[in-house]
Amino acid sequence: MDYSNFYAIAVGVGTKNSADAWLEVFYPAPLFKPNAEEAKALAEALGYEGGNVAIDLTDATVASLADVTMDERQLEVLNLLADSKRPRVMTLLASDAPITSTPEAYLKLHLLSLRHVRPNEQNLDNIFAALPNVVWTNRGAIDPSEIVDRQLEARLAGESLEVTGVDKFPHMLNYVVPSGVRVAYSSRVRLGAYLGEGTTVMHEGFINFNAGAIGPNMVEGRISQGVIVDSGSDLGGASSTMGTLSGGGEIVLSVGKDCLIGANAGTGIPLGDRCTIEAGLYITASTRVQVLDENRQLVKTVKARELAGQSDMLFIRNSESGQVECRTNTKAIQLNEKLHAHN
Amino acid sequence: MDYSNFYAIAVGVGTKNSADAWLEVFYPAPLFKPNAEEAKALAEALGYEGGNVAIDLTDATVASLADVTMDERQLEVLNLLADSKRPRVMTLLASDAPITSTPEAYLKLHLLSLRHVRPNEQNLDNIFAALPNVVWTNRGAIDPSEIVDRQLEARLAGESLEVTGVDKFPHMLNYVVPSGVRVAYSSRVRLGAYLGEGTTVMHEGFINFNAGAIGPNMVEGRISQGVIVDSGSDLGGASSTMGTLSGGGEIVLSVGKDCLIGANAGTGIPLGDRCTIEAGLYITASTRVQVLDENRQLVKTVKARELAGQSDMLFIRNSESGQVECRTNTKAIQLNEKLHAHN
Amino acid sequence: MDYSNFYAIAVGVGTKNSADAWLEVFYPAPLFKPNAEEAKALAEALGYEGGNVAIDLTDATVASLADVTMDERQLEVLNLLADSKRPRVMTLLASDAPITSTPEAYLKLHLLSLRHVRPNEQNLDNIFAALPNVVWTNRGAIDPSEIVDRQLEARLAGESLEVTGVDKFPHMLNYVVPSGVRVAYSSRVRLGAYLGEGTTVMHEGFINFNAGAIGPNMVEGRISQGVIVDSGSDLGGASSTMGTLSGGGEIVLSVGKDCLIGANAGTGIPLGDRCTIEAGLYITASTRVQVLDENRQLVKTVKARELAGQSDMLFIRNSESGQVECRTNTKAIQLNEKLHAHN
Could you give the ipTM of this predicted complex? Predict the structure, then answer.
């Protein structure tokens, strides 16, 4: 077997329901595009026969893996895993194919949050089907069919069973705490979010899985699935990037460098660099926009989607005419050339 | 006594403060409109004399109830309760009258979240007075007057006492986890919310008590007290349904089937079926709206409140004129007939 | 030494990282502008030599403090602290100077939330540098560099380590639970927020440090750092007060008495008393506003910043012209006089 292009290998520890199905998996140190020798050693220790698979581990197989690994961190993790009574798994992804199991889905989400891959760089097909709905509690993951009795038992025992959510995706910070970030509240960032160094997610910020901020960024608005915000851009409080999962169109959005989307504003089109949308203004793809040059003269009227991806745009709603305008931002001439070229 | 129209009976377990007053009650399996025989048996076992009352239970009375119940689930719950050291209560509501006690208030909130009744179908008069303000912590409910010392004691003991809120209403998921729903974060849904099968409440969604989504629905906006959202409708991120408790008018809002309220949009009027409000647009009752027919010709100008409850409306703010327009949605002619008929 | 103008003294208990640096400090009962004799007694017991300092305490020094205090509550706290194994500290602030240490920063934040000082009354210079970034968990504060191993250890032991955030500021309610308030969810109010009696912070409300509501207030929107909302004013759901830390201008905002900022609305200018901004409208400092008199006649057109701080203003966007208008509110003539005088 060829291990030179292996996608990822990771040993994890997780939770199963009473029917022995995985609810979630935590991977402390996944190997992304692993060294071929290491991949071969780990795979062969488990009798791996190819493809993308998740293999449940026993005390014995954990020991075999510890015997063959050449990676110090893996050895450390395997030694710790050796003593655990929790369900353990090794997930081997020969290639970046559609997802076929819960452990695979969790591994791919980890790869994003651990910054091994950026949003939209990975095949996440089938992820919703592969992720079970889970009741997240202060006592771990619980299957929805088992929660009612667990709650009653905890109550009667005088214990506190706090349910934090019922969702397919857990909070990122319970799995990955990236370096150099601040996240005011963990419930606002799903596992699978990409937070580059220097990203601050304030209380009203939100980052979905397969979405992210390259950093540094101040995120007080919502970054929808598939959306990437580049360095130096700020999303104002409760600002919105239109998603494609529900309600939005088919354009995958992105926000370039050094943009500002004002508080309570939003965009339904991708933005280039140095763009600003004033507070409270929502630009949808079909908003008709008056494009003005540096002398505030009308260049043309276009639907916003025709401005998709351009840089140096300042969007406001003229408060005397009610018209949505796109004014040149700091670098007027460059912008206007682009806009005219676009005719 | 006549038990044939009994409203509800439920046995619960809860928390009292140091003055022996109820802070909260959890009812694992309330009987709504119970079988008359079962009601009679339970009531008589406690010497019930009529009306809406909450009777504290002892080991002895729990045993008597277990002796007489004919309901398997009640028996199961009572057997579990028999061993508990926590305060136990049986709440008997002969009729749907104004609320007179904390256990009654909690029971009615359970009935909503357990889908026994829909929002606005129950008498909730006096609920704010009947619900004490509670400090919600990872160690249960605590009286506000007792929290400071509890926090200090926990600190000094090296224990963690996490306060999650100070509110009259708890998080629904700590009491009821309805089937077939997703709730990204528990703090956004109060006990007393109604979540039908297939409801997803995303991170920015919110559902108050006595408010709800019939399901299936994607809720990324806020459903205010008294508001019902019908099946197939989506509330975009941070969208708003205007409430009547504060700031709003007296019209109780509802959103019909298959509507879309865009991200950061809002409505101050009830909507019929298949209505859309574009992202970022807030329709208040007094917004003056240009009603356009299928040829985009002006039919008339009205205040939005005159369009309350109509179907097939698409609201946008014309980005060239600044005017708020109501265009016919998918079923133009039907709409226009209705609108004209309204003249 | 002169103790007659001492700023604050407080004994606290907190958390240190493995390098013996403070992560956070809880002060159960700070003395603000303490009695000179009490200040002198406590300071001298620790050999205090002046300035603003934080002195780590030992069992012996805790005992010395208990010996000299003349304040009953301090004695109570010191007696409790005597038995604790947690790191203890006494922070002495001779004056309200820029912040030089973590314990100082935490003390000043406590003074705000305990209502000893109002926002903008205290020198908070250097606070960001003095506050370490902390991983907040259900097992207390953890240094970001130590979290990965802690998470793995907890997992393997089958324990639950829930990360609630990574931030320089903790949730206020874990330190201070002010009397007479409701806070639907603790993550939305930072330590250092000022919540006057009668303040309700709903699920979508947010109050930053050094910001606050005088009370009574209904807060369903965001109060940015430095902003004060006066009594009787309501912030509608997801409404915004523009901050000065990022994205906003240099005007420090305030909202006067009995104002209403509608849902999804916002302000970039300070408002006087009895002002209303309609739902969905964002007033920025540079919004051009048509000022109308009580007969709806145009008085003048101004940038909103020229209306900063005025009372009795009603802001709407005319839904027929798209123009932003400032109409006289309830007290028309008074307003118009002010506005005319402003010419």
Answer: 0.93
